[in-house]
Amino acid sequence: RRVPRITYPLVVVRPFPRRANFTIPYGSGEGYRDEDLFLLHPQFATVDLIPYDDLQYALLLPSILRWCFNVLTVMSLRNQLLVGTPVIQVPLELLTTATTAPVAQELTHYQRLETLGDTVLKFLASLQLFAQYPLWHEGYLARRKDHAVSNARLAREAVDKHLYRWIIRDRFVPRKWKPSYVCDSIPSNPPEGQSIERGKEPIPIEEENEVATEPRDQLKRKKKKNQQLSTKVLADVVEALIGAAYEHQGFDLAVDCAAFFGMGLTWKKVPERITDILARSEPLDEPPAQLHLVEHLLNYTFTRKGLLVEALTHASYHGEDAAMSYERLEFLGDCALDMVVTDYLYHAEGKQYSPGHMHMRKESLVNSHFLAFICLRTSTISEATNAFWTPNGGTATTTEHQRIHLYQCMMHSSHRVLEDQHVAFSRFEKNGAVIEQALLHATMYPWAALTSLQAPKFLSDMLESLLGAVYLDSEGNLDAVRKVMRTLGIMEVMEHIVKSDMDVQHPVSCLAIWADQQEPKHKIRYLTEKKDGNVSCAVIVDEVEVIRVTEKYHSRASQEEVRFAAAEQALHTFSVLEEEEEDEESDGWGDIPEYGW
Asked: Region entry Disordered: which residue ranges (predicted)?
């Protein structure tokens, strides 16, 4: 087809660039493109001659002013609220991130820092209370910590400091941008009693019903400008500031930031608190024999053996060397474990996990089922020399090799604890290898398999108390805790979860998300029944039963086990998950004795 020849001039134009927000990185397709050229007839076009510099000025000015607004807001925070405090050392970049709400839709906001700061705050608050109240048991310590770090308390401290004045929460919309003036307009006729002469400040006239006499549209504008902040936003900013302080200079500056807000606690630096705690530790004259085995299992030698004895002592123990039970150390060790895991996930190279993804991965590493599995798995070979009498040669000796597990080193005086240990380890012997294979090589976290252990809580508590004892004995060195976690295999599992992007969602949650994403959406419910010594769980989709799992009922944990197993099988049925090779069907119990639970 021949294209007609154009014999008249045309105006070659291209549309204005789509990119308007220059505070965020340049995206593809936002600038000029060759195919965006248009040809216009001069007769039907209007040409306005605008200097190129003015065009660039108008295009860039909103973004420049927005950037200046954010920087000046943060500088005002430093110069007015943080002046005279150590927190002023935090760089502007971190302060800007910590005070920017997600609703502002800036390049960075406080959510990741808030997640880190929340863990740092809970860890530091736990340490302060642990040192300040040596006679409080774990329940009192946990309740006092929860009160100190609650959103309501943090929001109240933020309001007292007027922190809300520096929270960046307005959204930047360049295409609807207009400059903000000191006053919207200057009246042509000044009200009686006021002056608008240049260089003179206006003198307002007080009226009794000043608000009532204002026009209705002005009242609406005032109401629109008065934005309400939730207590969570205020609390999140406080936690983000603590996270920023920790990122810049570690726990010392984080303690200074927490002390700035107070929260009803007496704040001291971490080394001071550790010194106070260790000053109350008494040396042992005759340490129990199993301590060297525990030190070998942890690959850590304790300087203060009393801390290790306390970490191994169950509340039921009544021996001669009885010490305080492990609950207090478990309280501290739980926070130390959270701190190590959260710090690793926050700084995971190339990941930049959102708070939700950090929370899911952290839960997969600090839940009681996983920690109990680690406690049951950790073992070593011990040599025992036995002497006996022979009729011919007199006294003789034999050497035996025996495998000692970490859970066997707990000091207790309870027959029920002994039974629980025996039953849990019997289940571990059935399914332990499968669980370990899944944790280190599978693509989905083995929630159902871990739940099938139905391990008693004191196993995970014991492991956390050992981590707390290591932290105190090393004088507050989290690297020593990390080393012990690597010896136990926790760090290896955590690294695999991060590197392989393992699916760590609960199968129940994963199935609910799948159902919500379908068209049309499916309705899922679970039906759990107990009958003839068994417990079963059916997955019902749109009132149709698709999966039913039945296991022998042993305790209340059996209901959670069959629920997880049914959800996992449903995911495989709907091809949400890839099928993996499984061993012969087994409930993981075998000939384990029943105790009439």
From this structure: 188-225, 577-597
3-state SS, residue 102: helix
Q: What is the pLDDT of residue 580?
A: 43
| Tokens encoding 576 | 């949400």
Q: Per residue in 220-233, pLDDT tens? A: 555 455 667 889 99
Predicted local distance difference test score (pLDDT) of residue 208: 38
Query: Half-sphere exposure (CA, 13 Å, Cβ side) for 489?
Result: 15
In percent, the amount of the chain with pLDDT more than 70 equals 83
Task: In whole angstroms, give the CA distance from residue 148 to residue 126.
Answer: 10
Nearest to 503 by CA among 433, 432, 567: 567
Specify the amino acid at residue 298: L
Q: Look at strands 534-541 and 524-531 and give their pairing.
A: antiparallel
**Cα 467 from Cα 340, distance rounded (Å):** 11
Q: Supply the CATH classification number for the domain 48-186+220-276.
A: 1.10.1520.10
What's the rounded mean pLDDT across residues 176-199? 59
Task: Give the number of other Cβ atoms within 10 Å of residue 48's Cβ.
Answer: 4
What topology is assigned to 512-589 in CATH? Double Stranded RNA Binding Domain (3.30.160)
Residues 514 and 510: their CA atoms lie apart, in Å, by 6
Select 281-504's CATH number: 1.10.1520.10, 3.30.365.10, 3.10.350.10, 3.90.550.10: 1.10.1520.10
**Cα gap 256→276, rounded to integer Å:** 19
Predicted pLDDT at 590: 44
In this prediction, residue 273 has a pLDDT band, given cuts at 50, 70 and 90, of: very high
Could you tell me the pTM of the whole model? 0.81
Distance CA 570, CA 438 (A): 19
**Within a 10 A sphere around the Cβ of 180, how many other Cβ atoms?**
8
Whether the bond between 91 and the residue before it is cis, its omega within 30 degrees of 0, is: no
Q: Which residues contact 215 (CB under 8 A, 6 or more apart)?
A: none
Q: Give the best-scoring range by mean pLDDT among 151-160, 213-222, 531-540.
A: 151-160
Nearest to 280 by CA among 297, 246, 304, 249: 304
Asked whether 326 and 307 are in contact (CB, 8 A), the reply is: no
